[in-house]
Amino acid sequence: MNNNFNNMRAGDVVKLRVVRLSDLGVFLDAGTGDTNDDILLHKQQQNKELQIGDEVEVWLYFDPKKRLTASMKLPKMKEGQLGYVKVLSITKDGGFVDIGAERGIFLPYSEMHGHVEPGQMIWVKLYRDKTDRQAVTMRVEDDIVKLAKPAKNIKVGELVTGTIYNILPEGFFILTRKRNIAFLHRSEVPQGRLDFGQEVNARVTYIREDGRINVSMRLQKEKALEIDATKILNFLMNRDGKMPYSDETQPEIIKMKFGLSKAAFKRALGHLMKEKKVKQENGWTILADNINKK
Question: How do strand 213-216 and strand 181-185 relate by DSSP bridges?
Fold first, then answer.
């Protein structure tokens, strides 16, 4: 049997006519004049009942016996297009991703970026490899640059949401929901690991002349100060209103106890002392209501 009828290939979306009915489903005319070449559209791969003569749009793929087979479940991507897709599985040869079709599409290890795992959402481009098989690649940087739009009607301080499509030693490149390219420097990521495809929320810090934007995941200083001060107050309340830590405490101890830098800790303490909520005495910090109880 010829598995490349009239230039039809696995991965193609084509319109074919129903020529035979079967207990398994229906057979579609491959256009070769040989009924042995008719393509099976199984009942499980149909989304409506079909009759002889009906023309149906199908996606072609190989079944486990390498026979060209049809499905009415059509892919959401065309070759050459970009898509934001879910990783279905990882094997010894690579991975498989969901493009909306009947079967997952192969992602070779050579076309992966970073650590990829099942369930992860990633940006990919659909293409055909040297063996004429459909596959996807995570090497989408140049294509996203062509797809992106310059930032308009956006202000510094505005929050944006986007997904990471490229990672460099300096930071992360993000495509926002408005199709703007944003750069997130590693110094602007407070903590935790960011990976390819991950969705992030960030604040615009700078709008470049070329229409790209710089963003930060760090809280604005006023908000961060308020959160850090609350953290210190909660710590004090859990220690009967006093603690043996002050702005003289070593940075390593502050980091271990509060998860704050020495500078952030001092700013928060200074804020609390200015509001007369705490006082420092002999290396101790004391809640205002406990000052006379030490």
Answer: parallel
The residue to which tokens 């076309």 are assigned: 111
Higher pLDDT residue, 104 or 37? Answer: 104
Closest CA to 79 of 174, 142, 10, 141: 10
- Closest to 165 (Cα-Cα) out of 157, 156, 174: 174
Half-sphere CA count of 102, side-chain side, radius 13 A: 21
Q: What are the pLDDT digits (tens) for 96-137?
A: 999 999 999 999 999 999 889 999 999 999 999 999 999 999
Instruction: Identify the pLDDT of residue 36.
Output: 87
Answer whether 135's CB lies under 8 Å from 107's CB: yes
Neighbours of 81 (CB within 10 A): 15
Mean pLDDT across 231-235: 89
Contacts of 110 (CB under 8 A, 6+ apart): none
- Sorted by where each starts, the structural domains of the chain and their CATH numbers stand as 5-71 (2.40.50.140), 82-139 (2.40.50.140), 150-216 (2.40.50.140), 221-293 (1.10.10.10)
Distances (CA, A) of 172 to 110, 129, 268, 276: 21, 28, 30, 42
Query: Which 3 state secondary structure label does DSSP give 5?
Result: helix
The span from the first CA to the last CA of the chain, in angstroms, equals 92
What is the arrangement of strands in the sheet containing 242-243, beginning at the earlier edge strand? Answer: 242-243, 284-287, 278-281
Q: Do residues 202 and 216 touch, judged by C-beta distance below 8 A?
A: yes
Q: What percent of the chain clears pLDDT 70, i.e. is strictly above it?
A: 94
Report the distance separating Cα 192 and Cα 196, nearest Å: 14
Q: How far is CA 47 from CA 73, 84, 231, in A?
A: 8, 25, 56
Which 3 state secondary structure label does DSSP give 287?
A: strand
